[in-house]
Design a protein that fits this description.
five-stranded mixed sheet, globular, alpha/beta, 167 residues
Length: 167
C-alpha cells in the first residue's frame, strides 16, 4: 500500500495548506509547472518526489525532472506528463505515450482544472489534480491524495483552498 499526494501547476507556491494536506502521504507526485527549482527542492526535502517538468518550467527544473514518467506500483502502471488533455482532446505526444506504455492511470496537469474520469476508449483513468498554486485561470487551488493497493486506486481525497490564500 502506498499513499500518494498529487499536485500540479504550483507556479512557485508550496505553502502551509499544501504541506498540511500532504503530511500523511508516502510520496508526492508533481505533474509539472513547478515555477522554479526552489519549489522542487522544497517538496523533495519534505517527501519523496516523482515529477515531470511543465511547459513553464525552465532549464533548472528540466535537468532534474523528465518530460514523462512511467511508474509501476502495486500492479498498476501510471503515466505522468504535463500537457496531456482529456478524452477526445489529447495532445499528440500523449497519444504516442498511451500507445507505447498502455497505462492504467494517466496523470497530467496544465489545464488548472481538476478532473478524474474513466476513459473507456483508452482503458485508463485520467487524473488531473488541477492547480495547487495561485497563478492562472483557476478560481480554487486543488490537490489530490489517493491510495494504491493490490492493483486498485482508492480513497481519493480532494484538497481545496481559496486561490488568494498563501501561508
Amino acid at each position: 500500500m502506498v499513499k500518494i499526494g498529487l499536485i500540479s501547476d504550483t507556479h512557485g507556491v508550496f505553502d502551509q495548506p499544501l504541506i498540511n494536506f500532504l503530511k500523511d502521504v508516502d510520496e508526492i507526485w508533481h505533474a509539472g509547472d513547478f515555477g522554479n527549482i526552489k519549489v522542487s527542492d522544497a517538496i523533495s526535502s519534505f517527501k519523496p518526489l516523482k515529477a515531470v517538468y511543465g511547459n513553464c518550467d525552465g532549464a533548472e527544473v528540466r535537468i532534474v525532472h523528465p518530460f514523462s514518467q512511467i511508474m509501476e506500483i502495486e500492479g498498476l502502471r501510471f503515466l505522468m506528463t504535463h500537457v496531456g488533455g482529456y478524452p477526445k482532446h489529447y495532445s499528440p505526444e500523449a497519444l504516442d505515450l498511451f500507445e507505447k506504455y498502455q497505462p492504467n492511470v494517466f496523470i497530467c496537469g496544465h489545464s488548472h482544472i481538476l478532473k478524474v474520469m474513466n476513459d473507456k476508449q483508452h482503458g485508463f483513468i485520467l487524473i488531473n489534480p488541477g492547480a495547487a498554486g495561485i497563478y492562472g485561470i483557476h478560481t480554487v487551488r486543488t490537490a489530490l491524495k489517493f491510495i494504491i493497493e493490490n492493483g486498485s486506486l482508492h480513497d481519493l481525497e480532494v484538497g481545496e483552498w481559496p486561490k488568494h490564500n498563501i501561508n
